[in-house]
Write a structure and sequence with these properties.
It is built from 18 helices and twelve strands. By secondary structure, the protein is an alpha/beta fold. Among the domains are: 49 residues; 38 residues; 267 residues, Ribonuclease Inhibitor (Leucine-rich repeat, LRR (right-handed beta-alpha superhelix), Alpha-Beta Horseshoe). It has a ten-stranded parallel β-sheet, covered by helices on one side. The longest helix is centred in the first third of the chain and has 37 residues. It starts with a helix and ends with a helix. One of its GO terms (biological process) is SCF-dependent proteasomal ubiquitin-dependent protein catabolic process.
Length: 518
């Protein structure tokens, strides 16, 4: 028993202590291949001529050409393996180094990347693995702006960006813009002639897809993950191949849309507004600039009523370059009771009669910005009445008014007779008594209206010749009658509804045809 007790008591004293990891570092174990590779890499310090002679001796020792070819192939294969392994290890080491020296944690890095433009974000993605991982976060693609001044973006780029954003997508801007966005009060047209670019700018290069957006560029919005469900802003500029069916499909995938801007698309106003009414009833800002000034007479009164009833949240409305009639405009202004910003610049047929008794009514009294620049049929007497109402205290919230016209205002009797220096419009009195209103009333000293008419007629004739070249089966008389009918009605009061057939849209058969043509 004593012996057993001695063994039991002495056992703990003979047990060895577990060493600390720092005191006994783990020694790596190398395999035979590791040792061979280490010896092989040691040859990199040898002169290259020695390696060349050794390789030549190995080749000469082989009896046949087939064996020599196999040896060369194995050497090339081994060299590629070492090259790829070296690149991977270098990237790993660089990523580890960047993660140590980079001052921001991943969440703040993602926040910074989400503020970058699309091109800068792509540069950051290609920098290193750590940046690539952060830049692939969907929140970095919440606001996609792919607008350019020349054709540089195609459908594949748009699709990639939208898929990376997923359900985080909130803003999407596509197309070609001629320059910086026009400032408040400016009527600088954003419509751009896309066909003016050279063929080399739009054709496909090195087997890649053409740098031109087609009608299917918005189809990813309705993909499996429904990235368009939470989209708030959609701006489209001068996409010459876009059509109304494609827009309708995009709008159906964006029920939460609040801000819609369409410039220079060959789409019809009535069909576009109908698609908005059916799918985007939360819309708050609607900006639509026609690609052909004064030729779209498709808007009808029922469409105006539906827009007022189905989209009552509209605060900003801009319909530029369309053929609008006063009673339709009045429906919009009196029905949209939250309206604060209105822009009907370069619109045809507007005489200004819609402004009568508008400032003291429920609709229109909240207007802060009213832009009627270069409205060809805007009458001097209607502007004078509106100025008088301003002096009487109407439109108390109005802060910006633009009635400038490069061809002067139309007279009461004949709109061909232009007024350049009106005596009945109390401009100076308004400036003095309503200093809170920024008033722009720039008129030329003398007009060149008929020169403008000749320019428009030549533009129409050029538009007529294009479809006749595209299709030999369509008669010239149809295009001539449709074009002339939209202008002949301008000589009257401009308050008659035109037929829907007066607006002609030429559609292409499919996107495949576009690529075959390139």
């Amino acid at each position: 028993m004593d012996a057993l007790f001695q063994v039991q008591t002495s056992a703990p004293s003979t047990m060895a202590k577990r060493p600390c990891p720092s005191q006994n570092p783990r020694v790596p174990t190398f395999t035979q291949m590791d040792l061979l590779l280490d010896a092989f890499l040691g040859l990199s310090d040898s002169p290259s001529i020695c390696i060349d002679f050794s390789f030549e001796r190995l080749l000469d020792s082989l009896p046949s050409d087939l064996d020599q070819s196999r040896l060369i192939d194995r050497a090339l294969k081994m060299g590629n393996f070492l090259l790829e392994a070296s690149k991977r290890s270098a990237r790993k080491r660089a990523t580890k180094h960047n993660s140590v020296v980079w001052a921001l944690p991943p969440d703040l890095t993602i926040k910074v990347f989400s503020m970058l433009d699309a091109q800068s974000l792509c540069y950051a993605t290609a920098t290193c693995s750590m940046f690539h991982k952060c830049a692939m976060d969907p929140s970095c693609y919440a606001n996609i702006d792919l607008t350019t001044v020349s054709p540089r973006v195609n459908n594949a780029v748009v699709s990639t960006m939208i898929h990376r954003a997923g359900n985080s997508l909130q803003s999407l801007k596509l197309g070609i813009v001629p320059g910086p966005t026009a400032s408040l009060g400016s009527c600088q047209p954003l419509v751009y002639n896309v066909t003016s670019f050279s063929w080399n700018d739009k054709r496909s290069r090195q087997g890649k897809e053409s740098s031109v957006l087609t009608r299917s560029c918005l189809s990813p919005l309705g993909g499996a993950s429904t990235p368009g469900m939470l989209l708030r802003t959609l701006h489209l500029y001068n996409i010459e191949r876009m059509d109304n069916p494609s827009l309708r499909g995009a709008f159906s995938a964006c029920p939460s849309l609040l801000d819609l801007e369409i410039v220079g698309l060959h789409v019809e106003l009535r069909q576009t507004l109908t698609s908005v009414i059916e799918n985007c009833q939360f819309i708050e800002r609607l900006f639509f600039e026609s690609s052909k000034t004064g030729r779209d007479d498709s808007l009808k009164s029922p469409t105006c009523v539906d827009l007022v009833q189905k989209c009552p949240r509209i605060v900003s409305l801009a319909l530029r370059g369309f053929k609008l009639h006063d009673y339709k405009v009045r429906i919009l202004l009196k029905g949209l009771r939250k309206l604060k910003y209105v822009d009907f610049s370069t619109s045809y047929s507007i005489t200004g009669s819609f402004l009568r008794n508008l400032g003291n009514s429920i609709g229109g009294n909240l207007l802060e910005v009213l832009i009627l620049r270069d409205c060809m049929h805007l009458k001097e007497v209607e502007v004078a009445r509106f100025m008088t109402s301003l002096l009487a205290g109407d439109f108390k919230f109005l802060r910006h008014l633009d009635i400038s016209n490069r061809e002067g205002l139309a007279s009461e009797g004949d709109w061909y007779e232009r007024c350049y220096n009106s005596r009945i419009i109390p401009i100076e009195q308004v400036i003095k008594e309503r200093p809170d209103v920024c008033l722009l009333a720039d008129f030329p000293s003398e007009g060149s209206y008929f020169e403008i008419e000749q320019m428009l007629e030549s533009e129409i004739n050029s538009d007529i010749s294009l479809p006749s070249q595209l299709s030999n089966q369509t008669s010239d008389s149809m295009f001539i009658s449709s074009s002339e009918s939209s202008y002949n009605s301008d000589q009257g009061s401009g308050n008659e509804d035109g037929r829907d057939a007066s607006y002609v849209i030429f559609e292409e058969s499919s996107d495949e045809v576009d690529f075959l043509a390139l």
